[in-house]
Amino acid sequence: MQRAAQQSADVPVTHRLAVIELIVPSIEERGPVDKIALFKAFVASVVGGEWLGALPELPD
User: Fold this and answer.
1) Number of domains in the chain
2) Using CA atoms, how far apart are residues 13 and 15, in angstroms rounded to an integer?
3) Is residue 8 part of a domain?
4) C-alpha angle with apex 18: 37 to 20, nearest 5 degrees?
5) What is the 3-state secondary structure (H, E, C) of the chain?
6) Quick one: what percent of the chain has pLDDT higher than 70?
7) Is 17 a member of any domain?
8) Could you name the domain of life of the organism this protein comes from (predicted)?
């Protein structure tokens, strides 16, 4: 077991991550709920979370 852990530690991180395929849909492929959540998260990161509550609700 220790030998397997040592061999795993010897492999560079880039080689270990190369086996993971992550598919992230584009904004256009996401639904309206995801788009609004992403927009709110972006606005909160710009103006701050406390100001986000003062903004009017987004239309559906």
Assistant:
1) 1
2) 5
3) no
4) 45
5) CHHHHHHHHHCCHHHHHCCCCCCCCCCCCCCHHHHHHHHHHHHHHHHCHHHHCCCCCCCC
6) 63
7) no
8) Bacteria
